């Protein structure tokens, strides 16, 4: 009997080698190699290359008839926003997030909203009884909802062909396996081949498929990166389980923008949409407290008003702490250095803590000035006006640089009743001050901003 050929594949990045090694030379992870059977079959060659070319479906780009993709709403506006307007028939959506963040709950809520459609829920982790208990807890058991507790992809495919569902949920893709492969479920080859098979099923039968994926301790979707390239849409569920709010963010979308986010509140009855997140995040803000500054962040196409909180206190250690929640720590260190250089405050003996209230993560630099002013306010123990919005990117020379989407931020601030907004002076060139009832003040540098706020 011929000896089977094997190879060792890194479970982090997919790098393969003929022998086992401890450290992957590609991604530098340790003990990540798993032995897998190597496919040595060779496909039969056709008689001629010319015959292959003749049978290929070659089209002129100018002659392709444009067709608009068929979408349908999930019944959840926040999810439709992230998907680009709804679910496209035949699309493959990969959704990842921390354990207990609400991925399975969201899938069940979609089924309860779409009346008249036939659902197939493929569960590789929970039994049918557990899914029934969750549905009862959510208070709405959907109709035409089939549950399949199976991980064998051959059996799953047979059920799909038999039942002909309109919507398929696979929870989770890491548990599904193809029996013709010898490797265990969750390995690189199983994930790649299982995802490829499901994509083929969804595209052939024109059925949308949602794949629920695990994430690693670093917060990325587990498995090889090629899975994210294969699917049409990649969604990330963010948030802390101790917080009420969850953020659904689009990482990849072949049918729409990746700048949109959906915001949900976790309740006893499942996930509740938050149509106006600004009011929610500012509902418990502190009036007249030092270290608290209101700013505006653009998430997708809508502005969200957030509260930046800072606490500056004498350190008890030889090296001062710099802690940030919801804001980039490296950018915080830059802002602290600019404050020390331009405003003459020395924080080398003080711990600095920054928090974006509500569990929101802010990536854009437009909130730099708000972070700087909150630190200065806490250091001096002098409050900033609670009716003022602070916007601007802080440069290394202390200048306040121009930011984008300024009119949307102003409109949102005025709508929520704020009386004043502090922003970069260069932005005033592009604003018609007469059409706004809110007071707009431009500043050129961090020293001028400090003088007008504190």
What would you say this structure looks like, in words?
27% of the residues lie in helices and 26% in strands. The protein folds into three domains: 1-39; 71-275, Rossmann fold (3-Layer(aba) Sandwich); 279-453, Ribosomal Protein S5, domain 2. The longest helix is centred in the middle third of the chain and has 18 residues, at 188-205. The chain is built from twelve helices and 23 strands. Helix 9 (329-343) packs across helix 10. It is of the alpha/beta class. Strand 12 (245-253) and strand 13 form a beta hairpin. The N and C termini lie far apart (83 Å). It has helices at residues 49-55, 77-83, 103-113, 128-138, 153-163, 188-205, 226-230, 277-281, 329-343, 368-380, 406-415, 446-453; strands at 6-10, 16-17, 33-37, 71-72, 87-88, 92-97, 119-123, 145-148, 167-171, 209-213, 233-238, 245-253, 261-267, 270-273, 292-299, 302-314, 322-325, 350-356, 388-390, 393-394, 400-401, 420-424, 439-443. Mean pLDDT is 87; it is low at 42-47. A nine-stranded mixed sheet has the order 8-7-9-10-6-11-12-13-14, sandwiched between helices. A four-stranded mixed sheet has the order 15-16-18-17. Strands 2-1-3 form a three-stranded antiparallel sheet, with no helix packed on it.
């Amino acid at each position: 009997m011929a000896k089977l050929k094997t190879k060792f594949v890194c479970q982090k990045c997919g790098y393969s080698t003929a022998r086992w090694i401890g450290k992957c030379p590609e991604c530098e992870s340790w003990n990540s190699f798993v032995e897998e059977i190597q496919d040595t079959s060779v496909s039969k060659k056709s008689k001629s290359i010319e015959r292959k070319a003749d049978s290929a479906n070659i089209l002129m780009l100018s002659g392709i008839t444009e067709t608009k993709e068929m979408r349908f709403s999930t019944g959840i506006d926040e999810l439709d926003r992230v998907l680009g307007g709804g679910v496209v028939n035949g699309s493959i959506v990969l959704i990842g997030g921390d354990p207990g963040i609400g991925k399975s709950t969201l899938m069940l809520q979609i089924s309860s909203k779409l009346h008249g459609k036939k659902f197939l829920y493929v569960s590789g982790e929970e039994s049918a009884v557990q899914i029934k208990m969750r549905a009862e807890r959510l208070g709405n058991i959907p109709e035409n909802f089939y549950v399949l507790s199976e991980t064998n992809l051959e059996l799953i495919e047979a059920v799909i062909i038999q039942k002909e569902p309109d919507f398929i949920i696979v929870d989770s893709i890491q548990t599904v396996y193809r029996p013709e492969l010898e490797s265990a479920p969750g390995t690189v080859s199983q994930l790649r081949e299982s995802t490829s098979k499901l994509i083929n099923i969804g595209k052939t039968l024109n059925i949308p498929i949602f794949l629920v994926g695990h994430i690693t301790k670093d917060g990325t979707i587990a498995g090889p990166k090629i899975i994210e390239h294969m699917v049409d849409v990649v969604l990330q569920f963010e948030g802390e389980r101790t917080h009420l709010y969850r953020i659904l963010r689009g990482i990849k979308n072949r049918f729409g923008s990746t700048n949109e986010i959906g915001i949900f509140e976790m309740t006893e009855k499942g996930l509740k949409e938050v149509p106006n997140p600004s009011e929610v995040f500012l509902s418990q803000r502190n009036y007249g407290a030092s270290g608290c500054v209101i700013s505006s962040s653009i998430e997708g196409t809508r502005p969200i008003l957030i509260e930046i909180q800072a606490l500056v206190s004498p350190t008890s250690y030889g090296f001062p702490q710099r802690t940030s929640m919801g804001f980039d720590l490296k950018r915080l260190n830059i802002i602290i250095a600019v404050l020390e250089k331009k405003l003459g405050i020395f924080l080398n003996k003080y711990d600095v803590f920054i928090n974006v209230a509500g569990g929101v993560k802010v990536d854009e630099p437009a909130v730099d000035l708000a972070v700087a002013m909150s630190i200065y306010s806490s250091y001096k123990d002098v409050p900033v006006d609670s009716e003022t919005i602070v916007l601007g990117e802080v440069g290394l020379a202390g200048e306040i640089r121009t930011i984008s989407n300024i009119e949307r931020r102003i409109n949102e601030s005025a709508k929520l009743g704020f009386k004043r907004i502090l922003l970069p002076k260069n932005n005033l060139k592009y604003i018609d001050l007469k059409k706004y009832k809110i007071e707009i003040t431009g500043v050129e540098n961090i020293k001028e901003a400090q003088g007008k706020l504190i």
